[in-house]
What we know:
Layout: H1 3-14, H2 17-35, H3 41-52, H4 57-82, H5 91-102, H6 106-140, H7 144-160, H8 166-180, E1 183-184, E2 191-192, H9 206-224, H10 243-265, H11 270-285, H12 297-313, H13 315-321, H14 327-338, H15 347-350, H16 352-380, H17 388-407, H18 410-428, H19 434-456, H20 463-466, H21 468-503
Antiparallel strand pairs: 1-2
Amino acid sequence: MDLFEGLLMGFRVALSFQGLIFVFLGAVIGTLIGMIPGLGPITAIAVMIPITYGMDPALALLLMAGVYYGAAYGGAASSILLNAPGESMSVPTTFDGYPLAKQGKAGKALAIAAIASFVGGTISVFLLTLFAPVLANVAISFGPTEYFALMLMGLMSVSSFSEGSTIKALISATLGFMFATIGIDGQTGTSRFTFGNVNLLEGIDFLVIALGLFALTEVSSLVSERKETGNYSSKLGSLRLSKQEYKELAAPMGRQSIMGFLIGVLPGAGGTIASFLAYITEKKLSKKPQEFGKGSIVGLAAPEAANNGASSGAFVPLLSLGIPGSGTTAVMLGALIVLGVQPGPLLMNDHPDVFWGVIASMYIGNVILLILNLPLIPYISKILKIPRPMLISLVIIFCIIGVYGISFRTFDLLLLVFFGIIGYFMARFRFPAAPMLLAFILGSMMEQSLRQALTISNGSLFIFVQKPISCALLIVALLSFIVPIIRNIRKKKDSKEVSADQTL
């Protein structure tokens, strides 16, 4: 079956009455779940498994795929309006989305997020259609050394190009690594840094740290600076973008959609790495890098396009190789096996309706999500109209429900408060939170990849230099660390020369 015939079959499945209903329901459910911190697509799809049991596999996967990329859309709302990212890939959205909302441009921020998500999803689905079998073979070539080098490059880029001191960013990343090592070691089975507390044996959940460092920190700053009412606006603002803004966003959205898709293809990389790298890349390329972190529309659009691109890219290893590209697609893999479908190289031949139906549904789902999200912006943004004391209370309740709903342990609530205090002091002393959170997310994966690589090489570190891909990524990581330091040294020298000339 060639590409054209496959797409026709896929659209016959997706455009059938049942197909449209399931795509629509999945998109709506995913969007609503994505807006709630603490609930993510993994939870939603896990709940869908018993519901879809006995259904036609193609229709069941349409529903689950709709939930998946719908959650990628919905995650932007709580990040922009409340500074409360519910998923790790939504964290970079807060960097410029929340400042835009504080400036009275919440409508524009939500519109940019919806448009960037649509562009990222559409471009990545087009690439998925064309290159799924080819890219699956590329994904296989990535081993432990390449994964370690890729994650190190992303972490070094985020740390080096953060606002303020590079040293403070690296200290923040080191703290993230320290928290990532807490719990039972997956390789040896020994407990690490638990201090005899059984509640720490399973480690610390991402949501505890994310909501503590971002949402509770913002609440703390609002409470401590309650007299300063002029720093936040409850206005929705215009949803319209000027022609100049569209021109400014076009290239970044296109670039990061492609990059996000390629990163999503790599099993285990996912939307988190894609969105962080997208933000850092656009900051490097921008002629106005000083605007990033203060309400840059490019800084908002880039990660949104990238994480939606990565969501589609994660289907490449799932459908072509039977390897889940993310935690969510791992749950989908289990659901497909329950339905009697084995993803892998033979899926396209044995179940072409499933393979092409999912791809076709993504084209339709992205249009449905754009149509749904843009008209809903005035209603979603009404959260800004809530009085400040009530809004602070709601954010705290959201955080408590989100964290407690994961494990049903009061200990996690204490950890939430602990990270909220850490986040407050980090913000007070200008330590960036992003490197710490990214290091925590990547810590366990980097440790596992490092151990696997050293096992293969019998403990030799030369394995990272011997392989061309990992060597190139390590060089980029080294440059991203050195270049900002050189720039800072030059700036200090220039400022000293200027001050010396002024005194003369």
